[in-house]
Amino acid sequence: MTPEEHQSMKKYLLSSDSETLWNGTVRNFTFANVSAMFIWFGTVLLGPNMDIFVWLKILAVCLSLAFSGWIADRCWYFFVSDKFDKPFSIRAYASRTPFFFFLSGILFTMALLLVRWIDWMQTLQYFLIGGCIQLAIQIPLQWFLFNRLRKLSLTIL
User: Fold this and answer.
1) Which pLDDT score, from 0 to 100, does residue 1 have?
2) Are 94 and 14 within 8 A, CB to CB?
3) pLDDT of residue 91
4) Nearest one of 71, 134, 140, 136 to 108, comparing CA atoms
């Protein structure tokens, strides 16, 4: 693909309705809420704990994961994407991984500290876990997004 095609894919992605602030917030909150409900139902099935506050704590952690990936992607587009002729190249995707890893690690650890599931001595361990979870989410998600945009650019853009 040419750099012009990459730039048109970037423009299309950032101007699409699904990437507006409102739609992105609703989408991430919905994903986090559904994830929290599944995790909470799993804990209810495994034990007699029906405490709603456990669900709220799980929701806080899920929100940190859902929003950190989206925020990291927007930060990358805002600060770094202009440095690449091809923002959907392998090099560009490799430059996104630190954004995903570090922001998710920070927000995941902060959420766990806020709900008091960990203490300060465990922060590095959970920082690394949060970053790895986000990479496990973002690598397939970005791959599907790239393929969808590539197919659209061949037909629409």
Assistant:
1) 56
2) no
3) 86
4) 134
* Residue 116: C-alpha distances to residues 43, 75, 109, 138, 148 (Å): 18, 28, 10, 27, 40
Q: Rg (Cα) of the chain, in Å, rounded? A: 18
- Per-residue pLDDT, averaged over 5-24, amounts to 72
* DSSP conformational letter for 47: S
Phi-psi region of 33 (alpha: psi -120 to 50; beta: other; left: phi over 0): alpha
pLDDT of residue 143: 87
Q: Which of 25, 101, 113 is nearest to 66 (CA)?
A: 25
Please state, in angstroms and rounded to a whole number, the distance separating the CA atoms of residues 65 and 54: 17
Q: Could you tell me the residue ranges of all domains in the chain?
A: 3-155
What is the distance between the alpha carbons of residues 138 and 40, in angstroms, rounded to a whole number? 23
What is the rounded CA–CA span in Å between residue 130 and residue 149? 28
The answer to whether the beta carbons of residues 29 and 62 sit under 8 Å apart is no
CA–CA distance, 71 with 100 (Å, rounded to integer): 9
Give per-residue pLDDT as tens, 91-127: 888 898 999 999 999 999 999 998 888 878 888 888 9
